[in-house]
Amino acid sequence: MFVLFFSLCEIALFFILGLTPLVDNYAHLGGFLFGILAAITFFDDSVIDTEAFFARTRRSCISRYRKLISQTTGLFMLFSLIFLTYTLFYLGGDLKICQSCNFLTCVEFPPANIGSPFWYCDSCQTEAVGYFFQNPLNDYFDKLEIVCPSQEKFEFQLDPPLEEIDHLVVINMCRKNCLA
After folding, report:
1. Residue 134 and residue 91 in one domain
2. Which residue of 25, 31, 170, 177 has the fewest CB atoms within a 10 Å radius of its CB?
3. Residues 89 and 142 grouped into a single domain
4. Residues 36 and 90 reside in one and the same domain
5. Is residue 30 part of a domain?
6. Residue range(s) defining the domain that contains residue 170
7. d(CA 74, CA 87)
8. Which CA distances in Å does 143 have to 22, 23, 116, 156, 157?
9. Neighbours of 16 (CB within 10 A)
10. CA–CA distance from 169 to each of 116, 126, 140, 153, 166 (Å)?
């Protein structure tokens, strides 16, 4: 009973950690389902069948068929899950099957209506591209060009110029100009 409680607490903890940015809960959920299906398919229940172990009795024909059916079904579901994953991620492109499923992957904290979040769930972290241009006279980066997730382009003069490339500048400028 303690092991079950500990396992459920662990599952809840990892789901909550998955709500932080850049952690994909869909991958966690898929791995969880794949693990359960693999356990159903490949687990040998004769190890825990204490009656058969101690009494040295043979399994009934019905229990053998039940095991065969559960293994066959589990194997079919495993291959179906692999095929579905391949189809969605490699052939599906940008499918928007569920509009509100974004909340399963990331939750801004604190929410924007309460205050300024210290982690965001926008596309500026993953899709914005910044090109820094270096001044050949002083080796400082004084110009920045940002390509927004919507493919819009913005160009900025950096004042003061930067000595080294700072990706947080790109993310913050994207949030100010691309998402406004």
Report:
1. no
2. 31
3. no
4. yes
5. yes
6. 124-177
7. 20
8. 28, 32, 27, 6, 5
9. 11
10. 17, 14, 15, 15, 6
Q: What is the band of 78 on the pLDDT scale with cuts at 50, 70, 90?
A: confident
Number of domains in the chain: 2
Task: Say whether pLDDT at 53 is over 70.
Answer: no
Q: What is the pLDDT of residues 134-168, one digit of tens each?
A: 988 888 998 999 988 888 899 989 888 888 888 88
> Which domain-ending residue is among 72, 104, 136?
104
Ramachandran region of residue 174, left (φ > 0), alpha (ψ -120 to 50) or beta? Answer: alpha
Residues 36, 69, single domain; the answer is yes
Question: 27 lies in a domain?
Answer: yes
Encode the chain in three state secondary structure: CHHHHHHHHHHHHHHHHCCCCCCCHHHHHHHHHHHHHHHHHHCCHHHCCHHHHHHCCCCCHHHHHHHHHHHHHHHHHHHHHHHHHHHHHHHCCCCCCCHHHHHHHCCCECCCCCCCCCECCCCHHHHCEEEEEECCCCCCEEEEEEECCCCCEEEEEEEEEECCCCHHHHHHHHHHHCCC
